[in-house]
Amino acid sequence: DAQFYGSLPGTGVHVSDIVGMAATPDGKGYWLVGADGGVYAFGDAKFYGSLPGTGVHVDPALRITATPTGHGYWLVASTGQVYAFGSATPAAQPLTV
């Protein structure tokens, strides 16, 4: 039932290290995350920020998880550090890798 809402090559962005993907709660969009913590939004997924934009350097980011409302997401790095964007809060939901 998954729908295609776009991809990085279609936007002209060249990234070769996508490490995770999360769907929006309604399934009408998704986020991709690169190893550097860069987030890319497609469909009805909204962009709430990413690690390169905050000046944070990780090696590497491992996973992205959407909030239940879809108004934010968590990124987790290989160190176990969790980064929250949008309505996400670090203590709101534990992530396992």
Main pleated-sheet profile: 3 strands, antiparallel
- The total count of strands amounts to 6
Q: Distance between the terminal alpha carbons, to the nearest Å?
A: 26 Å
Radius of gyration: 12 Å
The ordered string of helix (H) and strand (E) elements is HEEEHEEE
Sheet with the most strands: spatial strand order: 1-2-3
Report the β-strand fraction as a percent range.
Answer: 35-45%
Helical segment tally?
A: 2
**Mean pLDDT, all residues:** 88
Identify low-pLDDT runs: 92-97
Class by SSE composition: mainly beta
Helices, strands, pairings?
Layout: H1 8-11, E1 18-23, E2 29-34, E3 39-43, H2 51-54, E4 61-66, E5 72-77, E6 82-86
Antiparallel strand pairs: 1-2, 2-3, 4-5, 5-6
Fold and architecture overview:
The protein has helices at 8-11, 51-54; strands spanning 18-23, 29-34, 39-43, 61-66, 72-77, 82-86. It is mainly β and 97 residues long. The strands form 2 sheets. The protein has a 3-stranded antiparallel sheet with strand order 1-2-3, with no helix packed on it. β1 (18-23) and β2 (29-34) form a beta hairpin. The protein starts with 7 loop residues before the first helix and ends in an 11-residue tail after the last strand.
Supply the key terms.
three-stranded antiparallel beta sheet; single chain; disordered C terminus; 8% helix; mainly beta; 97 residues
Write a brief caption for the model.
With 97 residues, the chain is mainly beta. Helix content is 8%, strand content 35%.
